[in-house]
Amino acid sequence: MTAIVEEITIEAAPQRVWDAITQQDEIIQWWADKARLKPEVGSLAEFRFRPPAGVLQFEVAGLEQDKKVHWISRQGPPPWAGTSVTWQLTPVHNGTTLVFTHEGFTQVDGGYEQTRRNWKYFLDSLKSYLETGQGTPGLPPSVS
Question: Where is the signal peptide (predicted)?
Fold first, then answer.
């Protein structure tokens, strides 16, 4: 199995980063066009994007307040079948280190590479949103 792993440091407290990845009014500021989610284990989170991306659904599989969020993909592009996403937060002197992992890919192909590029774009959007108040939600320029 193959994984996408990205590590970034964000100049924001872990509580602020946690809110940005668990609250629907926050997620639409840096990632999806629309979001419906509850930070509750077992709930189904839904994220909507303009076509061609469409709808993504994740089951909230694990939560550790201000430390970790774990999702399991339930609807998305075919390469995402059986994959999971983990957001690991660690406080550091100037904010939070975020280790993002999207794992479980059965093959490294065009779908995997596109996913890797898209997550890099959205993690940069998250960082920008938390540090400057301005994210870039929706589709990355290469997809639209």
Answer: none
Q: Which amino acid is at 133?
A: G
Per-residue pLDDT of the chain (144 residues; tens, 9 = 90+): 789 999 999 999 999 999 999 999 999 999 999 999 999 999 999 999 987 778 999 999 999 999 999 999 999 888 888 899 999 999 999 999 999 999 999 877 767 888 999 999 999 999 999 999 999 998 777 654
Rounded CA gap, 24 and 34, in Å? 8
Q: What is the pTM of this model?
A: 0.93
Domain boundaries 2-132, CATH class? alpha beta
